[in-house]
Amino acid sequence: MGSVLVVLEVRGGKVRPASMEALGAARTAAELTGGGTVTALATDAAEVDASALGAAGADQVLVANTEQHSSDGAAATAARVAREIGAGAVFLTATIRGRDLLGRIAALLNTGFVPDCIELGAEGGKLHFVRPVFAGKALIRVRINGPVAVASFRPNFFRGAGRSATAAIQKTTAEPGKAVVTGLSGERKGRPDVAEATKIISGGRGMGGPENWHLIEAVADAVPGMATGASRAVVDAGWRPHEEQVGQTGKTVSPELYIAAGISGAIQHLAGMSTSKVIVAINKDKEAPIFQHATYGVVGDVHQVLPKLADELKKASSP
Amino acid sequence: MDVIVCVKRVPSTTTRVVIGGDRKSIDPTGVEFLLNPYDEFAVEEALKQRDAAGGGTVTAVSFGTAEAQKELRTVLAMGADAALLLQSAQAPLCDGATTARALADAIRGRKFDLLFFGKQAVDMDQHGVGPAVATLLGVPCISEVVHLEVKDGKVTAHREVEGAHEIVEAPLPCAVTAQKGLNEPRYATLKGIMAAKKKPLDVVDASVGEPLVEIVEMKMPPPRAAGKMVGEGPEAVPALVQLLKHEAKVL
Ligand SMILES: Cc1cc2nc3c(=O)[nH]c(=O)nc-3n(C[C@H](O)[C@H](O)[C@H](O)COP(=O)(O)OP(=O)(O)OC[C@H]3O[C@@H](n4cnc5c(N)ncnc54)[C@H](O)[C@@H]3O)c2cc1C
Ligand SMILES: Nc1ncnc2c1ncn2[C@@H]1O[C@H](COP(=O)(O)O)[C@@H](O)[C@H]1O
């Protein structure tokens, strides 16, 4: 198949964790198709850690630094590098930035693209990909008929290769673009974003009101790296910002642990979180549909259950 | 201000998915189809930008089956000026790249200042057709936009990224994909629905070759293992935390 190019996601100079998983997927793809090198491409003033990227799966890293991120510029750089190294596949992260680039890179390479892959395989030397459709209500297995397989990988489904290797670092030029990122606003510090977190607690209408969100925050504070999410009912009521919404018209998440507090489990909410590894439901109605999807269920009032949960989690997390 | 907005007919989000006899698509029996929810934001923004500029046209384009005329009429009823259906029986089975080719071929040569898409069609969830069409047409594209300003031939947009809003600038003509939060889509009024009947809706045959992505099979996701009811009230919490720690090993 030739080599695999992985477009790293870089923000604030740092390579995002999802990129390490994409590198692991690239390593697997290279092995499944008879060997080939894995090249990582970093843009946007990346601080590149050659041993971390090498361990995750990269043989070499190309750095195309730009002062300002440009989506069309980054896509043009990726497509050029893919041609230069004769890539048989280009892999990205299924993050907001990865999504932004996926279709463009495929268009530039005159090929098809597959977003949000959760499984990778090969048959007769040709890669195939499994991905959710209809918000996870079904899965499709696909093959790309174009010359290059362009695909993105959903966070928390793949792992870095975990090898002991150091990647060779080289510079390359960045292509200019017309759409340019000129700044960031409303940066939320502290808690990770729901789309990236490996642990999430989400609150629904059963929380009763925004004044009760400290109960959610206390649980999140008890577990390192836990993000807070919300149902659409809560976002529509203005209790929480839209960027916290999980579901069909919000974010799709697949964390290791998803705690749903006071959420009924409507089909559109499930669409966004049903691929979570472990789901905990806390609801005062034992008939609530969320319990049919939960790994563990607790029937009870969030006002009583959540403070106890925060306490117990704090005890469990401290050595 | 001339604006083109691409819209798709999709199954309602409440659809219970049943896999069809071909094992590659869903069984459409009893499924309610409607305008893709994100395309409502795209249409609303197209109308707003036309009106803010004090004139121009909004043209809606869809690549779909003959049935998609219904969704195009909805867009005309909301206030678009004209509609174009690129008709193909194959359209619902086409991947994002193939769809983008069909749309770009139809849009190329038409004059536009802004080109709108939804950020995602809620059937195949590709998030890719907008950026792909823009790339094929050689125009910049800002995706997942929640705030948009157009002034002096330039677009300034806010897009949601993990943990912040990114501010992006681009010159016109420019493509934008609409995220929820961009605006509040209007409903079609009775007057709008009447007026829509007289607006032009062109239908042309669109042929696409071999799709760029081939669906090998569609299947249902593996069922989740049966869950455990741990208990009732705060008394159940210590047991829950033990399970999370020792059984599920997520703590
Ligand atoms: C096109 C479309 C897209 C949508 N997209 C999304 C989406 O992206 N995300 C999303 O979440 N929804 C989405 N929805 C909305 C979805 O259908 C539901 O309306 C929504 O998820 C309900 O939110 P909820 O569970 O918080 O509220 P409710 O359904 O009102 O449930 C509240 C739950 O809290 C429980 N409860 C009440 N009080 C307590 C208490 N004191 N302690 C414990 N439990 C309590 C109740 O028993 C109930 O089960 C969408 C809908 C449509 C039509
Ligand atoms: N068949 C189609 N006809 C017209 N527009 C489409 C079509 N498919 C996708 N789009 C547009 O592209 C957006 C994103 O779709 P997708 O990339 O499939 O998630 C949609 O919200 C529409 O604006």
Q: Quote the beta fraction of chain B.
A: 25-35%
How does CATH name the architecture of the largest domain in chain A? 3-Layer(aba) Sandwich
Spans of chain B of at least 5 consecutive residues whose pLDDT stays below 50 are none
- Structural class of the secondary elements of chain A? alpha/beta
CATH topology descriptor of the largest domain in chain B: Rossmann fold
Unreliable spans of chain A are: none
CATH domain class of the largest domain in chain A: Alpha Beta
What is this structure, in a nutshell?
The complex is a heterodimer of chains A (319) and B (251). Chain A contains eight helices and 18 strands. Chain A is α/β, with parallel strands linked by helices.
Structural overview:
The complex is a heterodimer of chains A (319) and B (251). Chain A is an alpha/beta fold and 319 residues long. Chain A has 2 domains: 3-172, Rossmann fold; 199-317, 3-Layer(aba) Sandwich (Rossmann fold). Chain A has helices spanning 17-32, 50-56, 71-84, 96-108, 213-222, 232-236, 267-273, 302-317, and strands at residues 3-7, 10-11, 14-15, 38-43, 60-64, 87-93, 113-117, 119-123, 126-133, 138-144, 149-153, 168-171, 180-185, 199-203, 226-230, 257-261, 278-283, 296-299. In chain A, strands 7-11-6-1-4-5-12 form a 7-stranded parallel β-sheet, with helices on both faces. Chain A has a 5-stranded parallel β-sheet with strand order 15-14-16-17-18. In chain A, a hairpin with a 2-residue loop joins strand 8 (119-123) and strand 9 (126-133). In chain A, helix 3 crosses helix 4 (96-108) and helix 5 (213-222) runs parallel beside helix 8. The longest helix of chain A is centred in the first third of the chain and has 16 residues, at 17-32. The model of chain A has no long low-confidence stretch (mean pLDDT 94). Chain B folds into 2 domains: 2-205, HUPs (Rossmann fold), CATH 3.40.50.620; 225-251, no CATH class. Chain B is of the alpha/beta class and 251 residues long. In chain B, the strands form 2 sheets. A 9-stranded mixed β-sheet of chain B has the order 9-8-7-10-6-1-4-5-11, with helices on both faces. In chain B, strands 2-3 form a two-stranded antiparallel ribbon. In chain B, helix 2 crosses helix 5. Chain B is built from 6 helices and 13 strands. The N and C termini of chain B lie far apart (55 Å). Adenosine monophosphate (AMP) is lined by residues 6-8, 36, 38-39, 42, 62-64, 91, 96, 99, 103, 117-118, 120-121, 124-130 of chain B.
